[in-house]
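## retry 2 of 3
previous attempt timed out at serialization; input unchanged, resubmitting
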Amino acid sequence: MATQPTTVRGRLFTQTGSKPLIGGSSFDAYFLFAILWFESGTFLDAWAHNNIPRLETFFTPWHAVLYSGLIAAATMIFAPIFINHRRGATWREAIPRGYELTVLGIGLMFIVGVGDMIWHVLFGVEQNIDALFSPTHLAGMVCIGLAFAGPLRAIYQRSKAPSGFGEGLLLTLAVASLLVFIVNVSQNASLYVNFWPTTTPVGENEGQLLAVLSFVFQAMLFTGLTLYVLRRFPLPIGYATIVLTLIAIPLSTMRGHYLMIPISLIAGILVDVAYFYLKPSPQRATQFRLYAVVAAATLYAVYMLTLVFTMTVVWTVHMTIGSVVVVGILGWLLSYLVLPGQQPEESIKTHIDQ
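## retry succeeded, writing output
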């Protein structure tokens, strides 16, 4: 008969309590290190695609960092599974809780990696935006997203909110690692690598519209994931400051826009201050929605103000201010998806009956 693991102080144990299983917050920390290793490779690879012309080989130093990080992540997840199985857990129980899709993602990533090498040999190495739409790269992005969401899924599934600085930092880094990856692969639609208000002149309606849509896309990534976490747990101290700054540091190196680091730092501090005073929670819906507006719009407000005072903004005042307002409105609307308003009892009953 299979033993059922239980959780004690962040670690997993079998029914007898004599054979501890690998898992819990300590495992999250180790796996986050493997994620950092892999993401370092993805940023090096992205930098190379952006800055080195005629890059025509799969065998590069940054690919070595990238795939060695993948091997480290695979080792970090598969070795504990085998150890846990030897300690009496079934194969399903042996997977650390929350990492089931991580196993799938990493396993498929090795297949995608071979396919990526074949694709490069057949069609050459992608340059600039082509790298984002290569079929093997897109498949890899899905696999990596499944894998890297593991720490956040694990924390989210636990019965108690993270307590203390260490567990709070783990939650923050789990969110940051996932967002950093998504923002990296969507960097062509990112304010971190494009200062559109200084380069897209008035009259280029399509260019300005695409710029504002990129603001919306990136703001919804941060705000959506933040509200998702906030619906489950209180946010850790310094959450927004750490997440936004960790996104800005590597992304700013793509095209040398290092001004985004202090912009993100200041915006993060302001969002954290707003969180402290609003104290949003699912039980405080009004404050929850106000915080959604602040979380969405603050980075873009600081961004626009900084560009106005340090560079030449070619957008009209209507576009400059209005783009920030649009982002804030959409943050408010997003809060209703994460925390719907109370429904009439009759409509709830009708929905259940159907």
